[in-house]
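Why predict the complex rather than its parts? Because the way molecules touch one another can change local conformation, and only a joint prediction can capture that. The input here totals 415 residues.
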Amino acid sequence: MKRFEELFAPHLDAAYNLARWLTGNDSAARDVVQESALRAFRFLHRFADGNAKAWFLTIVRNESYTWLKASAVHHWVAIGDELPEENAALSHSQTPELLAIHTENVALIQQALCALPPAFREVIVLKELEDLPYKDIALVVDIPIGTVMSRLARARAMLKLELLKLHDHE
Amino acid sequence: MNELDCTVCQTLMHGYLDKELDPPTTATVAGHLAECAECARLHDQAKLLMLSVKRQAPYYTAPASLSASLFVPVAPPPGILERWRTWIAPAFSAAALGLAVVLYVATPASEQPLMDEAVSSHVRSLMGEHLNDVVSSDRHTVKPWFTGKLDFSPPVVDYSAQGFVLLGGRLDYLQHQTTAALSYGRAKHIINVFILPTPEADTPQKSQAIRGFNVVSWQANHMRFVLVSDLEKSELEAFSQLLKP
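Output of the joint prediction:
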């Protein structure tokens, strides 16, 4: 019990933040973190030494996806890779682009990020908000470390597109 | 050195931004960014975007109630192992203890050594000249002889009339206590009657055969009687009826 607390209490915020971003609501995030803590506690003997944060976040991510699958709040069916590649067309209109990207509008950022498929949203959250190194992101998201950079590149490109879309609608 | 393809650079620039590239690749990307306006523009945008997200995107911290429910003071709901420890293990212990008690009570463990000892003593008494310490068929000789040697008074009766002749008495030692041993003769057979006090309650008569000898035992009035002989079982049982008040 003591070991459990020592290992995971410092990462509770990170766990909640990831769960909150992935599930999109507070009570789900709460449930997910509780379930994850239970699992972490139960399988504590399997955790030798190493990165407690990455280990805990991996569980939280898996639990979040379980919740997403089970919940009816399914806006995007695909976790997917079939991205629109039309940003080349937009990328020449400099001014609105910069305005959109350099937004101070919290709601806009949040909305744009929520519009991303979870597979891309999670890497943004883990990199930009959690500041995890690539190797830890690879662990948590369960992809080869070589894929992390390209996943992030796409995620950022997609986020930029979303911001532009939202900006145009305003 | 700056042969970097723009498409590749547009991926690598993210590693560059995140400071995840090895030094040679970092140098290559930096060199390309210095020369390629388009890539430099995208790089700047990506950097701005990163900063916007870092600054503006909400970071959801765990509610205090969640942290409290998980860490202090209530432990998370116990896992299977924990539940096993809490309930099943004690249940098993209790069951094992119960079984032990049942076995202890049900097994005549304390009986058997006494009977064995009695038989051994009987055999020994017949080996040498040690059948009796006091040789007499007179109960008024035998009974007083025990006085002062025992802390109880064994019933000493001669049953010559019934065919069981009192031969004498001696001190013996069974179950870590001094025991009165009376010997009776029946034709050529010798009967040893062991009498010792016991705190236990009365038990009915029991007959058994140990190593070819017949043994009849019972407990009455806090006295334990053990009869050992090579006499026939029915005769020994008949004799036991005489000893009972």
